Amino acid sequence: MGEAGAAKRLIQFLYKDLAFINSVLSQLMPGVLEEVATSRESSRTTSSQIEGNAYVAQGTIGEDKTSTQGLLKRYAPYDQVILDLLTALNIEPHNGSLSDTRDGQLVLLKGALTIRNFETLKTTVPKLNKANLLGLKAKDARAFESMFSIVPMGLEMDMYTNQGESIIGTLKGEYLTISPDDLLRIYGNYIPGEWYALGVVDCISTERENLSQFTDSDLRMPLDQYAEGIRLIYNQGYATHAIVPMLIFRELVL
Known about the structure:
Helix content is 30%, strand content 35%. It is α+β, with helices and mostly antiparallel strands. Strand 5 (155-161) and strand 6 form a beta hairpin. Residues 3-7 and 52-62 have low confidence and may be disordered.
């Protein structure tokens, strides 16, 4: 996705964390583009005319006056700052295993995209099940409701990479270019096509059996254990890595 690729391809952006993007770009370049302005000069020449009469012949008096006016046009850059970032990074999709990455590494991933709207599911699943629209057994329904009451809900991205690995991450609804409810209603969880995700990757598969090595506080230890329990319930060994995405996009077919 280097300079040539950014110039020749049309892209659909599904997720844009502009604060994250601007932060990274400002570290790579002296400034961040906010506005594009072009100027053009125009000239106009005027002279004074008099009409003739019995005493004065018709003609031109005075000197020609030329005025020059600058015209300034301003253009909104829209996604130019994102294209500038892709050009500056000149990064190619990660072709190896996620185990080859390091914690805190900026990576471009490619694969199938799933977006799960847990917050909506939290409110709708019990109602749908009561209406007998899901076919869940009472035991399974109680398990769902119990999990929803314990685990913090939100938006999750899940990318199944071309190397056959899953990586998960948290999305902020306001950074999606299509609302989460519209995505759920039209597509369900699976978003068709092949997608790119640019973000920071961390390994989350490491088990932390001895949490006391991080704190010996009687107040903080139970909170740490609770948070670790939430992490294990939520992930359940499903993914070994997580991503903090700044950008999710795909190439358009012309």
